[in-house]
Write a structure and sequence with these properties.
Family: Belongs to the membrane fusion protein (MFP) (TC 8.A.1) family.
Number of helices: 3
Number of strands: 23
Organism: Pseudoalteromonas luteoviolacea
Distance between the termini: 103 Å
GO cellular component, one term: efflux pump complex
Protein name: Efflux RND transporter periplasmic adaptor subunit
GO molecular function: efflux transmembrane transporter activity
Length: 376
């Protein structure tokens, strides 16, 4: 009886386990059948095509604006100011007298010397006539001639003093600010006023360290006013002169660029931002900024690999080497090839291997070239 009871119990337990397993199998089969009809998880993004871009590396330096015809007028002689003919900021013509020192004494001396010369010239003429008839000695002729030469030199010396006391405009231009007043005493070598000509161009002088290649005359640089937003007031300037030696103190070479005033209006001694191209690369790829993601390992993008189904791709994480970027585009040196397709808006949602639906694919980028500046 006991054996039969045990057998019955074992059979009942086996039947119960079998029935439970059968029920579970039926449930799993139903779940698997249902899941077979559920589509694979995917994300929807926009995509763009990677393009090869021209990339120019440049260095940013600060230059100094120089006018080709800007000078400081200085009094060469001392004396009282008798006339001030122009106010600060006025336009003058070349040769016009700006400040006149008192030259009454010199004018009197010049008048006397001129009268004396007239007398000596008349005497020389008579002596020369007599000498031709041998009615006078050669010594008398030589003395008369020497006296005429001496008086001519005295007249030139007086005129030179008058010139030094007459401060004139060397060319057409605009005066700076001055404080010259009639009646004041000016010492020799005193600054009077500056004058700036009205040439249609300006020079920009700047220095580039010796670690960069030498630029040739005719090379173009980008210039801008310091503090101005890039692109708003930029202008191109051509290099017109290159210093053949380096400045010993800073081991840099001096350059001079020429910019038209119609391109950028700058003033004398104004600080100018200069962007100088030093290297150009042709194997750079460009993608929209939104395509580039970053983590602790660096930058990366999600390249979209076609699956064969229209509009569907697989996301593949690709590390990239970022060179530079502007407000729209990031420039990459490694990691992608031309015509690769990468995720754009929505890239942050992706992970490696996920199925991707592309709703909008663009084949061009807004900016395919750039200049990256490194400040010195």
């Amino acid at each position: 009886m006991k054996i039969k009871a045990w057998i019955a119990t074992v059979v009942a337990i086996a039947a119960l386990i079998g029935s439970m397993g059968y029920i579970k199998w039926i449930e799993m089969s139903a779940i698997m059948a249902a899941s077979a009809n559920v589509p694979e998880y995917s994300e929807t993004v926009e995509a763009t095509q990677v393009k090869q871009a021209k990339y120019t590396q440049s260095v940013a330096v600060i230059g100094n604006a120089v006018a080709p015809d800007h000078i400081e007028l200085v009094s060469e002689a001392s004396g009282l100011v008798s006339e001030v003919n122009f106010s600060s900021g006025e336009r003058v013509k070349g040769g016009e007298v700006i400040v006149q020192l008192d030259i009454r004494t010199e004018q009197a001396n010049l008048k006397a010397a001129s009268a004396k010369r007239k007398l000596l010239a008349s005497n020389y003429t008579r002596v020369k006539a007599l000498s031709s008839h041998q009615a006078i000695s050669q010594e008398a002729l030589d003395t008369a001639q020497a006296n005429l030469v001496v008086i001519d030199a005295e007249i030139e010396a007086i005129k030179n003093i008058i010139r030094k006391k007459t401060i004139t405009a060397p060319f057409d231009g605009v005066l700076g600010i001055h404080s010259a007043k009639a009646g004041e005493f000016l010492s020799a070598n005193t600054r009077v006023v500056s004058i700036t000509g009205e040439a249609g161009f300006m020079w920009v002088d700047f220095y580039i360290p010796q670690t960069y290649r030498k630029l040739a005359v005719g090379s173009l640089v980008q210039i801008n006013k310091v503090g101005e937003t890039a692109g708003l007031m930029e202008a191109k300037a051509g290099i017109v002169a290159v210093e053949e030696s380096f400045l010993a103190g800073i081991r840099s070479r001096k350059y001079r660029a020429k910019v038209l005033r119609t391109s950028l209006e700058i003033d004398v001694n104004e600080a100018i931002a200069v962007s100088v191209p030093v290297n150009q690369f042709n194997d750079i790829m460009s993608v929209p900024n939104i395509s580039v993601l970053r983590d602790v390992t660096g930058g990366y993008v999600f390249e979209l690999i076609p699956t064969g189904s229209k509009g569907q791709f697989r996301a593949k994480r690709k590390p990239v080497e970022i060179i530079s970027s502007n407000e729209h585009v990031t420039f990459l040196h490694a990691g992608l090839t031309p015509d690769s397709i990468v995720a754009a808006p929505g890239a942050f949602k992706l992970f490696d291997g996920v199925l991707v639906n592309v709703v909008n694919q663009t084949n061009t980028l807004a900016n395919k070239s750039a200049t990256f500046s490194k400040e010195l």
